[in-house]
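Troubleshooting entry. The earlier prediction with adenosine-5-diphosphoribose gave an output that would not parse, so I re-checked the input for stray whitespace and re-submitted. Clean input:
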Amino acid sequence: AYDPIHRAALLIRDARSMVLISGAGLSVDAGVKDFRSPSGWWRSIDPRTVATVEALESDYDLFHEFYAARITQLKTVRPHRGHGILAEWEKRGMLACIGTQNVDGLHQAAGSRNVHELHGTIRAFRCHACGAPHAEETFLQKRKCQCGGRLRPNVVLFGEMLPQEAWDAAIAAIRAADAVLVIGTSLQVAPVNQLPFLTRAGRIFINAEETGHEDQFDVFIKGRALDSLAAIQERLELL
Ligand code: APR
């Protein structure tokens, strides 16, 4: 019988250089809003008004309010057991690295070490004008840089280049991968949505909803990340 949990467990058990590509759906089970689900951020806010350089420059108050709200929400958020299972798989040599679109730092908080933050991080801040680093509190207090410039989180805004080192590392990892695990992403944002298809390796997709890309994967598990990872882990222990 076709049991996607079992098929995924077999692929993951035999992998020696598996790469995970994760998106906002993975953090939903920790209480973090995603973007394109019915309850996602972009259902109530036009991303062009908050997640672009143009927004930062033309309406800093709204830009600041959006990121300050997300930073404040994250203060009460902890990684869930699925993040922990992924960190455990890395420790056991089953997961080589993570290329994440998430900026929340939850993979690292759960113990994952080889994490490439392809869309940057909301946990660090800099001056948009001179690039000087600044503390979270300075950003939250809406202070300016000594140079007079405005502060922003180190997230990749729409239209900005991805961090070159993280991108190059993710490309190299995908090219060497013998399995690719994709969790909690609508696969709508380039160039990360191309990564899973740059390798001939076995591809597993775990997502709460169909995205239209399911037929490009060897295994598709329609479900929540937390439940699916727990079910795969349970099956691995039986193999
Ligand atoms: N478990 C698994 N999948 C889930 C869960 C869950 N608990 N909750 C939601 N999902 C799925 C949704 O069905 C959706 O397909 O996760 C996916 C999240 O997709 P998006 O909200 O588009 O998030 P993501 O793909 O990470 O967005 C990519 O877009 O806005 C930019 O820079 C931002 O990094 C982000 C990028």
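This one parsed fine. The chain has a mean pLDDT of 97.
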